Amino acid sequence: MSAELRARVLAAAAAEPSPTRATVRRRNMLIGMVAAASGLGAFVIFAMLMSESHLLRLGGEVVPQQRLERPAWLVVATAGGALGVAVTAVWLALGRGRSMLGRSPRWLLYGGVLIPVSLLVWKVSCSLAFGDAMVAWPERPGERCLALSLLVAAGPLVSLMAIRRHAPVHPALNGAVIGFAAGAWAWVAVDLWCPVAHVPHVLFGHVLPLFVLAGTGALFGRTLLSPRRR
Amino acid sequence: MERYARGDEAAFGELYDAIAPRLLGFLRRATRDAFVAEDLMQLTLLHMHRARGSFIPGAPVLPWAFAIARRLLSDHARRRRVEQRLFSEALADDDRIAYEPAAPTAAADDVLHARRLEVRLQQRIDALPELQRTAYRLLRQDGLSLTSAAEALGTSVTAVKLRAHRAYVALRAALREAGEPS
Prior knowledge:
The structure holds two protein chains of two kinds. Chain A is mainly alpha-helical. Chain A is built from seven helices and two strands; from the N terminus they run ααββααααα. Chain A has one domain (about 25-50, about 70-225). Chain A has helices at about 5-15, 20-50, 70-95, 105-130, 145-165, 170-195, 200-225, and strands at about 60-65, 65-70. In chain A, helix 2 (about 20-50) crosses helix 6. Chain A is elongated. Chain B is mainly alpha-helical. Chain B contains eight helices and no strands. Chain B has helices at about 1-5, 10-30, 35-50, 60-85, 110-125, 130-140, 145-155, 155-175. Chain B is globular and about 55 Å long. The interface of A and B includes residues 12, 22, 105, 166 and 170 of A.
């Protein structure tokens, strides 16, 4: 090992300031707040634009003479359950256990698959207890929910990537789980807004964006989280 | 690393002394190019330097360093393949084996035989699938434990054992072909 090489590496590190743990903690808190604000802001703006200033919708006229109604307790149950899944998803996406290399691929894979499955199962099983929410609404196939989910999740996705920042092992898989986590938070918001629990609608408008976000997260992860020569 | 994560700038030198020789050995064996190995080693340490703020107290450092080095190595190999495709001139100087004329001594045949065996084994190592090759190098050449190697490769201990075992089987076959006791 040459002394010249050592001096060169140390000088290169000294020339490039890097944040300490305390700085990173402060920065991550700030990014977390930005993520929450951007998601909430996007939800308020776009939900109001799409539905005449309603953020919480409990139903509507499906076809003439037929209405879809969901009681407040159903909203609390579905959104509350989704919130639990979203919190767990963020823990899975950002937590690294006791290793700098993050969670094992098995954890990420099973956890990633469980996020959309548990959200779907929870939504459908709660709504089944109150049949009206399961009514098909032909005019609402789910494209507005899909758009709203993607718009709400965009900020949190970028923010969670910025917090994770570094994944030398399985960066694409880590990115995909981050995408699912951002999508789970969007699911909570969209669940307040959308009264429809008809399964094809939920699959297209609510579940599909989760996979779109996971795919985007995988692409971002591969390019942004992986150490490479810049 | 823990001290460095907390902001003790002088700790980086100690970190360098602790891990740079092993990293450089790993990268030299993988690239067989001293300049590229030094460059990648520097990049690995700079990545660790940039990520020091996110270091988890008590987390093992060596698997992390090797994982970064391995990722940079893959990135370097990919870039090199692209360059070779773009500029079709043969850049295979690394792969060309230069035989120096053997000195006319009694041991010349032995030296030549050992050299050929080394070349044959190196070729067989290079021909191994990337996962097997890296597992073999981390365990046998860099002296990592099974747990550390598994962590650096992002897989389970069982998978590392299996990959290394397959690599040993291939290398033993190469030795048998060369008429050596395996």
